[in-house]
Design brief:
This protein is an all-alpha fold and 146 residues long. It has six helices and no strands. The protein has helices at 5-28, 32-57, 70-76, 79-89, 100-111, 122-142. It is 69% helix and 0% strand. The protein has one domain: Glutathione S-transferase Yfyf (Class Pi), Chain A, domain 2, CATH 1.20.1050. Helix 1 runs antiparallel to helix 2 (32-57). It is globular and about 50 Å long.
């Protein structure tokens, strides 16, 4: 018998939280070693998403099949930030060679009629990301040690 929907969503919620924290840490990482470590965590999470996508999609374009579902929306909401991290680090995290299923899924998701016109502009998001990074690093530098 398969997993209950509660178990499935619990797994994805945990995975998403862990992965999105690593993605966020990549944005504010200081130094090459810290950046490499956070990028490695992001890539590990993407490998898990790739594996689960293969199991759940069963060859269909989305996690739940032929139509966009809850998991697609949750994970899709962070795709633009993935593109920002790719831009900042001059690398591809989701690409056809490393994550072929996610690559196809991301293309299907981003080009879907219900999604394509509401996605934020990656360039504007990158500029916002730079401001967030600067504020974080400034706050960290001016924090009084205890």
């Amino acid at each position: 018998m398969g997993f209950s929907i509660f178990v499935l969503f619990s797994f994805f919620f945990f995975l998403f939280l862990q992965w999105s924290n690593a993605l966020r840490a990549t944005l504010v990482a200081e130094g090459e070693e810290a950046k490499k470590a956070t990028l490695a965590q992001v890539e590990e999470g993407l490998a898990l998403f790739e594996e689960e996508y293969g199991k759940l999609s069963k060859g269909k374009p989305f996690f739940g099949g032929d139509q966009i579902g809850y998991l697609d929306i949750v994970i899709g909401c962070i795709l633009d930030w993935v593109q920002v991290i790719e831009k900042f680090n001059e690398m591809k995290l989701i690409d056809e060679a490393k994550t072929p299923g996610l690559f196809q899924w991301a293309n299907s998701f981003c080009s879907h009629e219900a999604v394509k016109d509401v996605l934020p502009d990656v360039e504007a998001l990158a500029q916002y990301g730079l401001k967030v990074r600067a504020k974080f690093l400034n706050a960290k530098a001016t924090a009084t040690p205890k």
